[in-house]
Predict the 3D structure of the following.
Amino acid sequence: MTQAPHPRNNRMLTVEQLTDMISSGETDTVILAFTDMQGRLQGKLLHAPFFLESALADGTDGCNYLLAVDVEMETVGGYDSTSWEKGYGDMAFVLDLDTIRRLPHRPGTVMIQCDLGQIDGGSVPMSPRTMLRVQAERAAARGWRVLAGTELEFMIYENTYEDAWNRRYVDLTPSNQFNVDYSILGSLRVEPLLRTLRSTLYQAGMTVESAKGECNLGQHEIAFEYDEVVTTADNHTVYKTVAKDIAHQQGKSMTFMAKPNERDGSSCHIHMSLRGIEGEFVFWDQERGRRTPLYDHFIAGVLHTMREFTLFYAPNINSYKRFVPGSFAPTAVAWGIDNRTCAVRLVGHGRSARLENRLPGGDVNPYLALAAMLAGGLYGIEHELELPAAVSGNAYTSGAPTVPTTLHEARDLLANSTIAREAFSHEVIKHYLNYADVEIAAFDAAITDWELRRGFERL
């Protein structure tokens, strides 16, 4: 465990600052958290003096079933890394001391994010954070820094989480009753919550840009500044957890589901670019005022791998309900200049030149999606893929290849992808195919409200 000479920004904490805060009694709880396959923060709340005496030097551990369960936390079969037969042993929480941050909405509480390691040494390759680190290291070996931003939408309801559960998530009251896309009035209606979120997340080390309303009822977005790719994923997961926690404190609930109702779903557009190690332009030829060939290869690689990597962009059954023509969610694997009908939209020039991947929804695991996008782009560079023609009109009717429409289709595309196995290893791909198989089997066995409404009386 090491820490960089300086924190990510002056709102993040050093080990020395944290030690002083614990010694003075200002901090009494240290959360050690990692991100699981579903994109959730899991871990432990440690008593702060114990953290100083033991966990700071030695870390802590947890059951390795945490990377082999479904959303319900049920132990499921089919994973090579852990099972009943293997005894469900431990894995190590390896502290990343660059991620020490206050959680101001929880007095006396600090969080540190962790990588996962084998108890006897070595990494856990199917850990989402490890998967992203591996791709970032591939880029670094070529002399490139990877910058990224995630634009995460959510929906706010006046119901508490407990009330929503008891109602089976039906007939909830959205915090706005009409389309509030860019509406100042609509944002002000929920500003007590949005303001608390912005302030809290800023104090927790994130650089907040803005909040805005979106199209669905009670739908909003808070945007954060572009950052290093792993930092962006770290911030994304903390943001989701803190946002739900603050909503709970205010007697409300929010969801990041991709499609919680039949109106427009919640997206998570991902922006990405490469820079030189010292910040040099990589995607833009400043003298000629245009994209570099390397940028075009990167875009081509993201497009070339998009269908095969969709499981990492759209990891749940519900994810695929977003992909509806004319909904601002993409259906065409195509690119265009500032064209929101395409899966890949190019925006900016010079230092701001970047591509926006519009495929992921609000339910995405940011580490997996960023790793997939970066792996695809690097594949395009390494193979000097030619960029197909841009779509300047309506990509929904362009005849371009389409994104998978079900988790089952995405699972089969990943299963047959040699590029995925080269980028992530056979072991990792097998692990995530089993994740998909578990979700598909669970859904196929479920009796849905749709079936009951259509069939209970009339069939």
